[in-house]
């Protein structure tokens, strides 16, 4: 199953994060230091942490300013939700369920006292005591009247079944559902078969109680399939050389040392299948006398078992690292991991293609991070690593900036197998084409606490700095890199053009010249500045402007008309069918965006669009959705939509309009 959305409340700096939407593969949390990014990951891990990871501690984890509520008994940890997660079921999950439960969303909540509850949403609800009590009372009265004299009354037995459920409205599941089904089946022979109304009442009650039992069974199946949340930070490193006796002593005395990376060291030992003391004692053991054959065999078996375990772990780690790191075979890069034991020392080395061994700490920081990550990952997930969600706290922070950019691809490869959420404030770990994957974390007011924004907005300018730097770096790299340049008003225009042109290219309908650089000017008013700079470098430039008021004003600027010429100023209204004088780029996708806005944003303008087809779509959505409408959210939903659809899912009108637009762009910049 995939994490769809989550909400963190009542945890350290996070009073209420708001709902956080997660992408199917990779989601990026950006924000300044002390915004609460790490706290969010730690809270999310508790949804289903690996075995051995400590749970919530009310004293340490409940917001300090509100802790008096706990001590004064105004708040009970058993009733305080901390992490609520919604999961989308995948094919394997659905195959394990009966068809009636396959459309469900699985909801899992972890409370402050580490208790949990789970539920299913999006399907018919379970029965409740309030829902059934009238029908149960009437059926009981009916069968009471048909019970033989002297026999126990069904209503009395029903009172026993419901004795503990009189103080409120309770879900009917597990023991209660089982008891009600047993009661119904026991007294069915007393139902008058000629009484159609009571027969129907009986069937209805039995169906609802049995449905609740099936519901409980479905929950049990999904609870076992809940992904393990593996949190990895830069403190979880593996040391290349461990002194086993010293580590064993620290573990036994509970004096674990972050400076010694003891958590990562313990994970390595767990992966190997030994404790530090076992390996230490084996390193101290003196070889028995050659005359004692049994002792000699036992000693050799111990050494061989250690050797085989170390070798198996080395092979497993090497296989995974090579897949992700992708070493250059022409350079004989050191990428084969070897874990060896010698006396009191456990050593991690890397072997290159020539057989030369290099200590792990002499490899790059990125490679060390990857080795440490896989050690923690495999040890914490045990045999569940295929069903794990990765939470990476500031990955690659010690890498050079350009190495971070390459390392971003490593994280993308990891996310193809395991859904990944990572925090960063580095612009090089956010790709210019990944802004739809970004969630902005900020704490503008400590009284309000940490907040997470799905849109790229924040009250604190520092929260957006990594995104601005990422876009700035990409723009600096691409601004003068191509001879042909198309200037767009804003980021959403960039997304629509890039995503739609790729669909049409794959569909063989239209092909945007790949030598044309797409440049976002941020606003229509800045298009002229970008055009002036690019033309000054003797580059070919065209602009695509919306036909709204801002686009109209930009298109009429004398400087822009003089610089580009009328043929290189493209207007969206020239490509809409029917023509819309105030058209924006969204109007080229009305057939897709209207139902998409209804589904993803909850704003249905189908009737309004039919009644006023000449009115721009954005105006319709803004009028009906008010503050709930965001051009950014709509564009982001469309980008996600294109990943699962082809050009044939566009209407013929849309395909024609976009083919015409792409043809015009290619012609303007030929």
Question: What does this 3D model show about the protein?
Answer:
With 670 residues, this protein is an alpha/beta fold. Among the domains are: 129-217; 238-380, no CATH class; 479-668. It is built from 24 helices and 20 strands. Strands 1, 2, 3, 5, 6 and 7 form a six-stranded antiparallel β-sheet that branches. Strands 8-13-14-4-15-16 form a six-stranded mixed β-sheet, with helices on both faces. Strands 9, 10, 11 and 12 form a four-stranded antiparallel β-sheet that branches. Helix 17 (527-536) packs parallel to helix 19 (558-564). The chain is flat and about 95 Å long. The chain starts with a strand and ends with a helix. The mean pLDDT is 86.
Quick structural summary:
Helices cover 45% and strands 16% of the residues. It is an alpha/beta fold and 670 residues long.
- Describe the largest sheet: 6 strands, antiparallel
Low-confidence residue ranges: none
Mean pLDDT: 86
Number of helices: 24
List the helices and strands and how they pair.
Elements: E1 2-11, E2 14-16, E3 20-21, E4 26-30, H1 37-45, H2 58-61, H3 68-71, E5 81-88, H4 91-95, E6 105-111, E7 116-121, H5 129-144, H6 154-161, H7 174-187, H8 196-224, E8 228-233, E9 241-243, H9 244-252, H10 262-272, H11 276-284, H12 293-325, E10 336-342, E11 345-351, E12 357-359, H13 365-381, E13 388-393, H14 401-417, E14 420-424, E15 438-442, E16 451-453, H15 461-478, E17 484-488, H16 491-506, E18 516-520, H17 527-536, E19 540-545, H18 549-555, H19 558-564, E20 569-571, H20 590-601, H21 606-611, H22 617-625, H23 631-643, H24 652-668
Helix pairs in contact: 5-8, 6-7, 7-8, 9-11, 10-13, 12-13, 16-23, 17-19, 20-23
